[in-house]
Amino acid sequence: MTTLPVFIPRSSRARRPLRGPKRWALMMGGALVVLLGVLIAPLPGPGGVPVIAVGLMMILKGSYWAKRQFIRAQYARPRWVYPFRRLMRKKPEIAPVFWQQALRAEKVVLKRPRRRLMRTRKGLRRYFRKFFR
Q: Tens digit of pLDDT for each residue in 85-122?
């Protein structure tokens, strides 16, 4: 009768020898992306802001300190942090997040009679509804 070998799990450090360098690479790459976003921010258009957000998300993935700060911000200002949480999911909802932020920005910048995004969306829905019935 033969005996089966006993499985002895290795320590987590032995299983993942590249964990530390991977975290540092994520943080350094994120810092470079943030720096790139700051450099292209003065150019016309919103090019710098999304690039900076991507860089900050890379830093957040690799830094324990940044994760703690993110959780604190989440408790302090949940409405500000929620879009970033939605974008960091495995399957991010990119279009709905950008639409929601456009509506919020329009609400901050324009007074009620001049807001057009919601009315435009409802008009387009009514227009296309007759084609898809």
A: 888 888 888 888 888 888 888 888 888 788 888 888 88
Which amino acid is located at 88 in the chain? M
The span from the CA of 85 to the CA of 79, in Å, is 10
User: Is the separation of the CB atoms in 32 and 55 below 8 Å?
Assistant: yes
Q: Rounded to the nearest 10 degrees, what angle do helices 78-87 and 64-76 cross at?
A: 130
Q: Cα separation of 81 and 61, whole Å?
A: 15
SS3 annotation, 24-87:
HHHHHHHHHHHHHHHHHCCCCCCCHHHHHHHHHHHHHHHCHHHHHHHHHHHHHCHHHHHHHHHH
Burial of 59 (0-12, 13-18, 19+ CB in 10 A): buried
How confident is the model over 47-62, as pLDDT tens digits? 888 888 889 888 988 8
Q: Are 30 and 58 in contact (CB under 8 A)?
A: yes
Instruction: Determine the residue type at 79.
Output: R
**pTM of the full predicted structure?**
0.60
